Amino acid sequence: MSSQQLRRLLADSAGTPTRSYQEAFTELAASHRGQPVVEILPFLRRAADEARLGFTAVDLREQAEAIRTGRRYSLRIRVS
């Protein structure tokens, strides 16, 4: 994912999602490995909001930490 695409992902709140959260996560994992969690979180939150997924702050922080470290992570969606 290019920097321009990441900026658009954060800035375009009116658009409809053009890809799944899994795709966004995979792209972030490839482009943001080693980056601080605080820099990854806004992108994950935006992608989750666009996909209308109810990830908690703890969920997103866990995902961002996996991206930062390069650790494998299986996305889980909790059903309540």
Topology of helices and strands:
Elements: H1 3-11, H2 21-31, H3 37-50, H4 57-69
Helix pairs in contact: 2-3, 3-4
Could you say which overall geometry the principal axes of the C-alpha atoms support? globular
Overall structural class, as computed from helix and strand content, comes to mainly alpha
**How do the helices and strands follow one another from N- to C-terminus?**
HHHH
Mean pLDDT: 80
Overview of this structure, please?
- It is a single chain.
- This protein is an all-alpha fold.
- It has 4 helices and no strands.
- The protein has helices at about 5-10, 20-30, 35-50, 55-70.
- The mean pLDDT is about 80.
In a nutshell, what does this entry contain?
With 80 residues, the chain is mainly α. It contains 4 helices and no strands.
Question: What are the main properties of this structure?
Answer:
80 residues; 59% helix; globular
